């Protein structure tokens, strides 16, 4: 797997490069701002771009803007945003096109190397990875569209929102994979999502989840 | 109109030169005409008044000195007119006396107004210093008890792991896991602290997005209505955000509101933030949060109004001037 890293702090950029290389992910370019990221991705066509939100020159959300531009220009490259803070608004913007291959995680998550590398691989394969911190804000929120879900289905949806597979959800909730599949089917039906490819429907379910806040 | 005034101010120096040239030209005409009657004096007097006025207006002197200067100028002009019209009864004494009286009166009231303003600003500055001081103290305490302590624990766990790596690898692994937990907790605390100082989304996306994010976590329905033609200056934006945040926190914590309206709009070049809730009222500044908010708003020359009768509703409204 080939990755491009965009992170302006050399300390974190080097650490991340080492972490990925140790886990057999090739880092083909590492850059320090949004423009350089777009150039590097257009040149290298990596499987995934791992992008810090706050970068020069304005130190606001240029990483996110560059990532959104990449989603449009090079949709085959997955984008994983990492940041010191998470905002639901940004998660919603990233997922808005309904395609997979996006992730949004706190930088803290790199400390759990195994889970982080799993998330990188999952996003590169077209899946999603949403930080539990973003997801947690929605748990227990009452909303018309989600009101029909049972508490258990809510739990399953929260884990789906993090981007976990059915097997991983089953493990976390101590259920059988079959039971999780049933819950997932029920959630997709209750949210009245149009029939389509499985990954896409899962992303739509997550979007419905995020949209319940606005 | 203001464009014309601007042009007038910009070209002041050129105007003075033009007037002096005109005066010289008039003098040359008079000489060419064989030094007849002193008619040029009627051109010199009004133009002299204009040049003198412009000269005084451009001086960096106290308002009092400027008043005295301008009254003297008009006096000299009137005396000039009196002399040029063949002396006679000394009538200029009346307009000069009236002018001096009115100007003197104005100077006195202006002085009083500025004294009141100085007093108010001194009070506001003291409030601003106090609010900054207490914020710094809080940040220091949070760092000391939070992230710093976590990092000490983390370093200790790493040290222990290093020591036991050979003898007891299993124990070493336990220490490493603990170190990771400490690092995660320290990060979380630092993130909360940073958000309390200045939420990143406010800088990234402005007031509406930041207040929306606040509202999304409120747990009760919050309607947010932000109508601003452009982003206000940073200091105003930050203050407006904290008015919304503190108003919201107050409504949730003390008033047990079931519905909250946050409204931000422009008025007379300033930003008005209003937080309205349907809770049971009785909000007081004694609890600290609202008092700190008042200091914060007044430090920016704004005003804060809190109306919270027993039984509700509560309205908190801040008006923040934008000096652009």
**Shape-level CATH architecture of the largest domain in chain A:** 3-Layer(aba) Sandwich
DSSP summary: helix tally of chain B:
10
Tell me the name of the CATH homologous superfamily of the largest domain in chain A.
Response regulator
Count of DSSP helices of chain A? 11
Task: Pick out the low-confidence regions of chain B.
Answer: none
Q: Can you tell me the CATH class of the largest domain in chain B?
A: Alpha Beta
Taking all Cα atoms into account, the compactness measure Rg of chain B is 34 Å
Q: Approximately how much helix is present in the residues of chain B?
A: 55-70%
Q: Quaternary state, please?
A: heterodimer
How would you characterize the overall build of this protein?
The complex is a heterodimer of chains A (214) and B (324). Chain A has 214 residues and is an alpha/beta fold. Chain A has two domains: 2-131, 3-Layer(aba) Sandwich (Rossmann fold); 138-211, Arc Repressor Mutant, subunit A. Chain A has helices spanning 10-22, 34-44, 62-73, 88-95, 113-124, 132-136, 144-147, 151-162, 166-173, 177-190, 198-211, and strands at residues 2-6, 26-31, 48-52, 78-83, 102-106, 128-130. A six-stranded parallel β-sheet of chain A has the order 2-1-3-4-5-6, with helices on both faces. The N and C termini of chain A lie far apart (37 Å). The model of chain A has no long low-confidence stretch (mean pLDDT 87). The longest helix of chain B is centred in the middle third of the chain and has 72 residues, at 93-164. In chain B, strands 1-2-3-5-4 form a five-stranded mixed β-sheet, with helices on one face. In chain B, a hairpin with a 2-residue loop joins strand 2 (260-267) and strand 3 (270-277). The two termini of chain B are 20 Å apart. With 324 residues, chain B is an alpha+beta fold. Chain B folds into three domains: 2-91; 134-197; 200-321, 2-Layer Sandwich (Heat Shock Protein 90).
